[in-house]
Write a structure and sequence with these properties.
Largest sheet: 5 strands, parallel
CATH architecture of the largest domain: 3-Layer(aba) Sandwich
Strand order of the largest sheet: 2-1-3-4-5
CATH class of the largest domain: Alpha Beta
Length: about 250
């Protein structure tokens, strides 16, 4: 049985409806979420499938966008779709309300106002008294995660299906530093701290950053060393005046 039924109008609510299906199916299992386009097999009687699924589901999510209340009836554009007793959005909500399911209005965005029972058909007036949840398109994933958390507390059947409660989640690693390896043989490794970057197997040790270099010769410095090109000889570095040594001319 589908635990969650997603009720929406194709125009205006499709993106959020599919987002709900993706997020909640991943958490509770694809067979636990009813979305007409996904859940009705080809050739099946869609009238019977819609009515039964809406009636038997424990939760109905009514996706409500800015045009939901005044959306025109496609058969008679002069009247509102909700005023048509055969409107599927209306019929699905009526089935869920009459069966005692938990009906949650999902208000999409910041501009959709709380429903006014006086603007709804009498059979849907109860919908205006159901506590709504606001879904923002920019934060839809986190909003749906929070919605799932609340549904688990209210619907015991969902708690038993909650994969999030049974899975140890590992945080995704953050972005790794970009390291270039242009015309180098060997690997390049990024080492934390202030020691810089080391290039291995580059025909001799190379150290960029602060510190000393030991490799047959000894280079001391207090700045960054930059070596470009295909070096075939020695590397000469000058870091300014040095202390005189024995044998130097005075």
């Amino acid at each position: 049985m589908h635990e969650i039924f997603i009720n929406y109008r194709t125009k205006g609510g499709k993106a959020v409806a599919h987002g709900c299906d993706d997020r909640l199916s991943a958490r509770f299992g694809p067979d636990s979420v009813f979305l007409a386009r996904k859940s009705i097999d080809p050739g099946n009687n869609y009238v019977e499938a819609l009515e039964q699924a809406a009636r038997r589901s424990r939760v109905l999510l009514a996706v409500i966008d800015e045009e939901w209340l005044d959306a025109p009836d496609r058969h008679q554009p002069a009247r509102k779709a909700l005023d048509n007793p055969h409107d599927w959005v209306r019929r699905e909500i009526e089935e869920a309300l009459s069966s005692g399911a938990l009906v949650v209005p999902l208000l999409i965005g910041r501009h959709v106002e709380q429903l006014d029972p006086h603007r709804l058909p009498a059979s849907l007036a109860e919908l205006a008294e159901c506590q709504y949840v606001r879904i923002d398109l920019h934060t839809m994933n986190s909003d749906l995660t929070e919605l799932g958390d609340r549904l688990v507390q209210q619907v015991p059947g969902l708690a038993a299906l909650d994969r999030r409660a049974r899975t140890d989640y590992v945080a995704e690693p953050g972005p790794q530093p970009t390291v270039r390896n242009d015309h180098q043989s060997g690997g390049i490794g990024q080492v934390g701290g202030s020691v810089g970057t080391f290039v291995n197997d580059a025909h001799g040790p190379l150290h960029t950053g602060r510190g000393n270099l030991y490799g047959g010769s000894h280079i001391s410095g207090d700045g960054s060393n930059h070596i470009a090109g295909d070096n075939q000889g020695g590397i000469r570095q000058r870091f300014g005046p040095r202390a005189p040594r024995e044998g130097d001319e005075q």
